[in-house]
Specification:
The complex is a heterotetramer of chains A (131), B (233), C (128) and D (582). Chain A has 131 residues and is an all-alpha fold. Chain A has helices at residues 16-46, 54-60, 64-92, 95-122, and one strand at residues 4-5. Chain B has 233 residues and is an alpha+beta fold. In chain B, helix 3 runs parallel beside helix 6. The chains are: A mainly alpha (131), B alpha+beta (233), C mainly alpha (128), D alpha/beta (582). Bound molecules: flavin-adenine dinucleotide, protoporphyrin IX containing FE, iron/sulfur cluster, FE3-S4 cluster and FE2/S2 (inorganic) cluster.
Amino acid sequence: MARISVSGTPRPMSGGYELAIWYLMRLTALGLFVLVLAHFTIVHFIYDPAVQNANWIAARWSGAAWRTVDWLMLSAVVFHAFMGMRTVIRDYTKGSTQMVLTMLLYLAAFLIFAMGTIALVTFPAAVKVAS
Amino acid sequence: MQIELRILRFDPERDRKPHEESYQVEAGPMDRVLDLLHKVKYEQDGTLTFRRSCAHGVCGSDAMLINGRNRLACKIRVDQLKGRRITVAPLPGLPVMKDLVVDMESFFAKFRSVQPYLQADDPDPERERRQSAEDREVFDDTTKCILCAACTTSCPSFWAQPSYVGPAAIVNAHRFIFDSRDDHAADRLDVLADGDGVWRCRTIFNCTDACPRGIHITQAILEVSSKIVEHHA
Amino acid sequence: MLFRYRGSEGMLAWAFHRISGVAVWAFILLHVFDIWLANVNPTLYNDLLSLYGSPAGRTVETALGAAVLYHALNGLRIIIMDFWPSTTRYHKQLWYANWVVFVVIGIPFVLQIMAPAFGLAAPFSFGG
Amino acid sequence: MIREHDAIVVGAGGAGLWAALELAKAGVDSAVLTKLYPTRSHTGAAQGGVCAALGNQEEDHWEWHMFDTIKGGDYLVDQDAAEVLAREAIETVIELEHMGLPFNRTPEGKIDQRRFGGHTRNYGEGPVMRACFAADRTGHMILQTLYQQCIKHGVKFYDEYHVVDLISEGGDLGAGGRASGVVAYRIADGELAVIRAKAVMLATGGFGRMFRVTSNAWSLTGDGAALAYRHGLPLEDMEFYQFHPTGIVGLGILLSEAARGEGAYLLNKDGQRFMERYAPKLMELAPRDMVSRAIYQEIRAGRGIDGKDYVYLDVRHLGRKKIDEKLPDITDFVRVYQGIEPYTDPIPIQPTAHYAMGGIPTNLNSQVTRDAANTVVPGLYAAGEAACVSVHGANRLGTNSLVDLLVFGRRAGRQMVLDVKGADMPAVTEAAAEPVRAELEAFRARPKGERKEAIRTELADVMMDDVGVYRTGEALERARAKVDELRDRYTRVSVDDKGTTFNTDLLEAREVGYLLDTAQTMVAACINRKESRGAHSREDFPERDDVNFLSHSLATKGADGAVALDYKPVTITKFQPKPRVY
Ligand SMILES: Cc1cc2nc3c(=O)[nH]c(=O)nc-3n(C[C@H](O)[C@H](O)[C@H](O)COP(=O)(O)OP(=O)(O)OC[C@H]3O[C@@H](n4cnc5c(N)ncnc54)[C@H](O)[C@@H]3O)c2cc1C
Ligand code: HEM
Ligand code: SF4
Ligand code: F3S
Ligand code: FES
């Protein structure tokens, strides 16, 4: 139990990185505020989930505009939600567990982003549903 | 009136883990929790251990967890707590040395890490440095800190990661960052832009609620983070 | 400690924000996966989607909507305080305001989403 | 284990910290020992201000400050010391500003100043604005600023080390010996550390806890003074103890004179500003001894509020803005501790035991002296409330204590820097801890005995009732008998806590012993001073007697355990004693 205190000033480890994340969290949040709420309104308020199927999506994504909007939302969400989860992991875990979880998280982020992008880009304009 | 005082006790020489003990004390409404602790110590059990000095809320010795909140035992009256039962425990999140006494070393180390002292580059003038009343007002609030640790140890972000520099250290950094006489704000901003710096604040406000000096801590923290943003822009 | 400490509004606001954030994150995982599925296996997707229309699905959706709405509103509250620190003095009022907006927006959504689960027609119609 | 530093400072209040700063700046291997964390020191409780004749608000001169100090102290002040105080106040306050102290500011951006009791323009013409301040937390800011500077300069702290004994070589301190270190009890785990040093400074503060109603912290138990006394050194002017007029009724928590400096009134039950009958020129801003006596007189004449033992302090007419800006802390105290709203209600107050004018005798360089000839004790220094250079004489003026800390704390530091160069490290062995180890062990070993708190409470009662604002020979004899009885009972004290970890039970028992020693010297000195001067007011000898008593008392421990008294002359340079009217 060291009871002798000597003054000292540890140097910081990282500067701009955390700041950038903090800032982007807020920027994406503002974007998402519009995009996600609009999305939710369209998908759950204007249209009823019961009428939505692959064809419905195909109709919506028939032009490039909605695909672009949704891709922006995807990008923002992936960044925001996963960086948000990074925070949660950084709070409740330490050391190697934290490392491993963060890596898994980034991996999942990449996968989700890739899957979403692929879906957005390659989704056929009309869907044939095998009956 | 009779008050039941439930105190979380721990003596490293006897106990393996902390346990609650109950004491009955006679109290008047204007009595403070510190008075009750004294009554227990002086009339019932001299082994009860806690820190205290000034007894009027200016030295910061006796911050502890009272009825689930961090407060100064000498600054909270029995009538303000309402009810006949008062629970007392040591500050959360710091190692307990004995009963209500926690090890403050890490707390003070964090205080020291933010360079809590004036650094002015120009040579000292003959007379005082001039400072307008407005410039002085900017950091008035954060000069009130008595380093009691009530804030830092009330912060869930600190409980989760004790490496978080914590509100108290940020408050004291704020006091110099916003002092017009100081030339080294940038150094402190660098320290606080660290992963364990201001970004760990989740605007939970437990700190602000706990501060016995009524410092608007969350505001100070956010003023510092805004300053970091500005500084990097 | 988290459960023993008697925090006030600020602590609740944060706890809800975190819980809702994590919940919405978990849903996003599922949601992106199902969109992807719509591409690879539309049949399976349609089967999956019919779940969304079921009463249980609608309840989950409502909860999701509530989480998103709370998180978004409180997120806005946080951002306001971040960029105008003096507004922290009114953080409690801002939080109450959140709840007012939450309820005002939330009620029509709940009616709209939940009505079909009780065999009623959706109260708002957009001719779509 | 033996530790070693060239210089050690005991106490981390204003006096100790400034001394440490001087040592650190000069590169001397030094350390500060304190039984509390430094920022818990009672300097942090000081509210109103620190005086320096800066003349920022109106014309002022250090000579005026010097005169006020001497007159305020009822001419018992050593005038060479008062001159040092008044002159160096100016540079030390400026230096504090350079260190970063956030003083309130005038419209031109200079240090703001306000009025304080007994500080006057042109040798007594009327109140002057001389007290520099940071709201009503000036002491807090001084303590924080000095601690901050200590961090900056890498001062080493032994936090929560309770110094329990002094070590000397070549005889005891009172018998020509040289101070060679201290024994400190590490509160965390009970280890007794022997620390040797070429220079030892005592800056342990006051001993107000010997009174029932006091503004002083629980930790102010006269440790340094009592240890010096036990080692044969005299304590100077112990009969002069200041009662501050405005303490919160019952609790003693201080409501700073700054309130009156800003214009607050004192009212009796008839709503009358009674000070006009006692000090027509300065009114509420008369020196503290006078105001405290005036309050007692009002109470005795049945003009206390509701006929009880208190009067009102009234700030209502100052307006909310001024109250919030200039007196935020003390109005907060009133709300928390009295449940009263000072905007709308007058505040019940009564005099509270506040400040020791006396203490360990020192010369102008803060070196401790051991006799009437001012023979220096090698290696030992003292400053702050624990010491007596005699700048306060028989009554201290408000704000002059903080000045005392700064000026003589700094001088102590500088003197130590000079003295440790070339001095050899004393030879000290572990054995030095044995006497005090045995004393501490005895508290633990006794199975069941007297309770320390009973002794402390009874002491506080008798000191308050019989050695308070007014004194009589009869009451003082009663007090002497009581203190003797308590000293005897003290030898049978046992503690509940037998452990080694953070044993505050044990240390408090030790502290009660310090209080008994200082109280004993105080009572003896009071009995012997058969006159009224400053804070020492004998009803049986109501007049000041310059023929017999214009001298400092020196109380030394006699062979039989009783107090032996000696006297030394007051240094008079510029101002001949005159009757003291305001
Ligand atoms: C409520 C209040 C208000 C005041 N307001 C004013 C004011 O406005 N203006 C003014 O000029 N004066 C004021 N005073 C007086 C002045 O504040 C004090 O006299 C002064 O601060 C004493 O400082 P110090 O450095 O001597 O000791 P303190 O600040 O009392 O510090 C004592 C130090 O010694 C340490 N210590 C004590 N014993 C031991 C031991 N055995 N071992 C180790 N360490 C020990 C303590 O831990 C502490 O660090 C006020 C006093 C009070 C009580
Ligand atoms: C719709 C608008 C949204 C806004 C305004 C918003 C706002 C915010 C803000 C400001 C934070 C930072 C909190 C902090 O650092 O203290 C945050 C954190 C978080 N957000 Fe969002 N968000 C939104 C949408 C989402 C969405 C859609 C998700 C999930 C998919 C999400 C998940 C998270 C998570 C997990 C955190 C971390 C929680 C924490 O640190 O406690 N957010 N959000
Ligand atoms: S900011 Fe307030 S709560 Fe935190 S240490 Fe300072 S005084 Fe205590
Ligand atoms: S409680 Fe903690 S999260 Fe921030 S607002 Fe206070 S530091
Ligand atoms: S004892 Fe000093 S703050 Fe409570």
